[in-house]
Structure of hydroxymethylglutaryl-CoA reductase (NADPH):
Amino acid sequence: MVKTPRIPRNTMNDHSLEWAQKRREYLTEQTGTELPHTGHFSIDPEALPGNIENFIGVVQMPVGIAGPLQVNGEYANGLFHVPLATTEGTLVASYSRGMRVINECGGVNTTVVEQFMQRAPAFIFANAREAREFGKWVEEHFFEIKAAAETTTSIGKLEHIMQWSVSKTRYLRFNYTTGDAAGQNMVGKATLAACEWIVANYPEHCEYLLSGNMDTDKKHSHLNMLHSRGKRVIAEIVLKKDVLKKIMKVDTKMLARATVLANTGALMAGAAYNGPHSANGIASLFIATGQDEANVVESHAGLLSHELLDNGDFYLSVTLPSLIVATYGGGTGLPTQKECLELMGCYGTGKANKFAEIVAATVLAGDISLACAVIGGHWVSSHDKFGRNRD
């Protein structure tokens, strides 16, 4: 048998400069690859427990600033400089161009409509009738279930439980508010406590799986388009035809025609988002600010809506029904990520809705810029000139 090498670890104090170096040396021995840049960082490894295992160093991402961007929100109000971490040339410039249009049109209005985080256990019974009766019992005992769930958290609040029967299984979807945390782990722990209470108190035998996959954690789903996961945020603006013509060299009537064509194409493709590119801005902001990058899968889904007004101006809005962001906990407190949040005044408790409004406004700016670039014929040429690092 071939002996498999083991990555060096210290079970007592693994997050240290010493053990990060030992692992880099081990990798050099195993692969022949030196890691001088990965091993050069300013983060204190002692701050990383809970964020990373087998720490070896830092992957550095370029961060650019787009904006400033005028946001007229209920939580974000004023001019914001938006940090975007990316390796795609022209991206920051494109978002800044869209933000200029927004500013000259008076800013973007943003609204957080609602916010929930879910865990969706599945309860299994002998037959469909038993599953149906269980569902009625859950409705009758909601407040006891809520109390059991909330024993595990001072922030999370169980708001309602959705239910579906399939075969002999009853799928439940627990919906919580989670304050300024994204909350996936929070609601998992709370739902486990609730399920254990149910098993102990339901008069008949039942068993459960903590996630029956209807929470669609880190997966896009149409369910989240209808029943919000994370924050449902809307960003909207009236684009003035003269401003669009001056800056983008695009007529609003042409933009309206192109948007109809793009909507049809997205419908045929079964796309999760019918606008130009919500994921670009969201991913860049997520990386810069310490969000869970896998949540881009859910967060980028949405609906771009438009209307050509009688005076030739153009109403445009982005609805993001499952934007999952945090301004506290997770990776948001790491040094560079914290600094990027602080640039927007979005670090710490009480700031998650503000950050969500800035994200939605940024998505709208990017969509304005890219849509006009495609119509104006400089989409390919700008990327070819500025966005190709061939070294």
The domain at 69-114+232-386 is CATH 3.90.770.10 (3-hydroxy-3-methylglutaryl-coenzyme A Reductase; Chain A, domain 2). Residues 24 and 35 are 7 Å apart (CA to CA). The chain has 13 helices and ten strands. The mean pLDDT is 93.
